[in-house]
Amino acid sequence: MITYEKITTRKQCEDLKELATKISLEHFAPITGTGQVYYMMDKFLDPDTVLHEIGENYEFAFILYNGKRAGYYSIAYEGEALFLSKLYVEKSFRGLGLGHAMFERIVKKAKKAGCKYIYLTVNKQNLSSVAIYKKWNFYIHECAETDIGGGYVMDDYIMRREV
What we know:
Blueprint: E1 2-6, H1 10-27, H2 29-32, H3 34-44, H4 47-55, E2 58-65, E3 68-78, E4 81-89, H5 98-112, E5 117-123, H6 127-135, E6 139-149, E7 152-162
Parallel strand pairs: 4-5
Antiparallel strand pairs: 1-2, 2-3, 3-4, 5-7, 6-7
Helix pairs in contact: 1-3, 1-4
């Protein structure tokens, strides 16, 4: 059974960072290296940062599979756009349709909010995720290189999908 747990507390934010680090080390370390993974976790998923983003316009939630936290997503409403900031499933839960379930939930939220499109950023070397997003009717809208500090650069596609 799939359920969701909205993230609102510091403890949940700490748990989020722990889950995100595990997922990112498995998935991104071969692409970006472990140094960048830890840097990004400290920069973007520090509990204070997440709580600040929640106080702005972000929504973070865990997806639960039979009561266990199996992944998470983060979205932000930006006028006519919905920014899909994060959508990740822990390795042992992949292949169960959880990523697709989160995505369908996000599409419904975008429609309800009157958004015209959803966009996201994805590392150009993250070929498996690029393929999934294309399957979900995203297209490469543009490319972006973003200096995130610490000597690290995010080399991404900005992908977009109409709602």
